[in-house]
């Protein structure tokens, strides 16, 4: 893989303007935030693993068909295929599967708050595994974020004595899988096709989900209008199109500078959950969510500067080897 990357020198992807990055993040936050509400509605029509497998397969096949129709051939190189398999395992089978299991047991707003500790897990993983320097502000951000997690879970458990601890663990497990996928993707060659990775990760990730659903859920899906539009939203919008935006933003140097705006996703989810589904949240959930937002912001103050330096250094080293 190293030799392949070195034999195809590439220039850094063109930088997006701040307005374009902000608009892309805003659209992404809106689509992903409302996806938590849509998933809860869709899970009334099909079991969680079955629904997630349908969502992934429909979105992946649709995007792949569009790419083939537009003359974009299927990439068969080993590097792209490995990226797609790993991303499918982490982002789809792991993250989406656990997310659906969480939403089935806890409110969409709670699931969104806990899933979006992902930026904190990325920062912690980079410090522990990649030996990246952690500033005092970033360390305080991690502490604030994880204190927020404790408040959200503990407060909701007191407010609702029959809260599902399995649901909370599934949401945090989904966040961990997403963090692993994010760290892995950032280390992959920049020349790989974002659109094809988005399509292939969904298709590859749907296969273990489908096999597990057949073994555990023995699904008998009844086609209804609600199932159709929720799968369409989750498959086309929150899966294929949203991940194209997400991958594109990960390739942008400027994306890290506005990464803290990801906190809008749980905010959108909580508001949508309250308006559409009528769920209510105690003060501990509000304070805990605010602490998580503060933690993400503090961590990204360091990340915005350091990631630009790291990516620039890697590109210079790659060109020096040519």
SSE layout:
Layout: H1 2-7, H2 18-42, H3 48-69, H4 78-105, H5 108-115, H6 118-128, H7 136-159, H8 165-186, H9 194-216, H10 225-250, H11 264-277, H12 283-321
Helix pairs in contact: 2-5, 2-10, 2-11, 3-4, 3-9, 3-10, 4-5, 4-8, 4-9, 5-8, 5-11, 6-7, 6-8, 7-12, 9-10
Please describe the biggest sheet, giving its number of strands, its sense, and whether it closes into a barrel. Answer: none
Structural domains: how many = 1
Radius of gyration in whole Å, from Cα? 19 Å
The strand count comes to 0
What is the ordering of alpha helices and beta strands?
HHHHHHHHHHHH
Approximate helicity band: over 70%
Roughly what is the average pLDDT, rounded to an integer? 78
What does this molecule look like?
The protein has helices at 2-7, 18-42, 48-69, 78-105, 108-115, 118-128, 136-159, 165-186, 194-216, 225-250, 264-277, 283-321. With 322 residues, it is mostly helical. The chain has one domain. Helix 6 packs across helix 7. The longest helix has 39 residues, at 283-321.
């Amino acid at each position: 893989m190293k030799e392949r990357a070195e034999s195809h020198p590439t220039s850094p992807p063109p930088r997006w303007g701040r307005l374009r990055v902000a608009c892309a993040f805003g659209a992404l936050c809106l689509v992903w935030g409302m996806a938590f509400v849509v998933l809860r509605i869709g899970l009334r029509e099909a079991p969680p693993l079955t629904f997630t497998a349908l969502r992934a397969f429909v979105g992946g096949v649709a995007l792949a068909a569009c790419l083939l129709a537009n003359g974009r051939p299927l990439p068969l190189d080993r590097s792209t295929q490995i990226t797609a398999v790993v991303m499918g395992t982490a982002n789809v089978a792991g993250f989406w599967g656990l997310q659906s299991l969480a939403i089935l047991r806890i409110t969409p707003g709670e699931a969104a708050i806990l899933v979006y500790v992902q930026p904190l897990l990325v920062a912690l993983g980079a410090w522990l595994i990649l030996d990246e320097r952690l500033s005092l502000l970033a360390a305080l951000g991690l502490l604030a974020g994880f204190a927020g997690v404790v408040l959200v879970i503990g407060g909701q458990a007191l407010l609702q004595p029959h809260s599902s601890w399995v649901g909370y663990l599934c949401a945090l497990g989904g966040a961990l899988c997403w963090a692993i996928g994010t760290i892995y993707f950032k280390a992959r060659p920049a020349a790989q096709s974002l659109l094809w990775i988005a399509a292939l990760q969904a298709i590859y990730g749907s296969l273990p989900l489908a096999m597990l659903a057949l073994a555990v859920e023995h699904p008998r899906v009844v086609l209804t209008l609600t199932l159709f539009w929720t799968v369409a939203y989750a498959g086309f919008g929150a899966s294929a199109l949203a991940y194209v935006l997400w991958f594109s933003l990960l390739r942008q140097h400027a994306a890290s500078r506005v990464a803290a705006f990801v906190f809008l996703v749980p905010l959108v989810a909580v508001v949508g959950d309250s308006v559409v589904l009528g769920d209510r949240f105690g003060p501990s959930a509000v304070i805990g969510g605010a602490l998580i937002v503060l933690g993400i912001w503090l961590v990204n103050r360091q990340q915005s500067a350091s990631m630009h330096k790291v990516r620039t250094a890697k590109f210079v080293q790659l060109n020096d080897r040519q």
